[in-house]
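Technical annex, item 7. During the second reporting period the consortium partners agreed on a shared format for inverse folding records so that results from different sites could be compared directly. Each record opens with the tokenized structure and is followed by the designed sequence. A conforming record, contributed by the partner at site C, is shown below for reference.
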């Protein structure tokens, strides 16, 4: 199980087609700060029916979208 599994499960529970979470919200779900490893692990989310869209370092948020 990946250290990001709690985030993937949380995203999979959301029924919206697309949404964004701030870094602060993500860190609250995970219990630790996200880092560059997130870029490596983001492909795991596809197994839950979603994918990571744009990651804004300036605005500090991540877009998620449901896969069709």
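Designed sequence (site C submission):
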């Amino acid at each position: 199980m990946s250290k990001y599994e709690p985030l993937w499960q949380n995203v999979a529970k959301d029924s919206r087609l697309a949404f964004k979470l701030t870094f602060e919200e993500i860190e609250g779900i995970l219990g630790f700060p996200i880092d560059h490893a997130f870029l490596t692990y983001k492909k795991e989310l596809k197994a839950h029916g979603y994918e990571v869209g744009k990651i804004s370092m300036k605005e500090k948020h991540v877009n998620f979208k449901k896969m069709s």
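The longest strand covers residues 50-56. The chain has three helices and three strands. All partners now use this format for quarterly exchanges.
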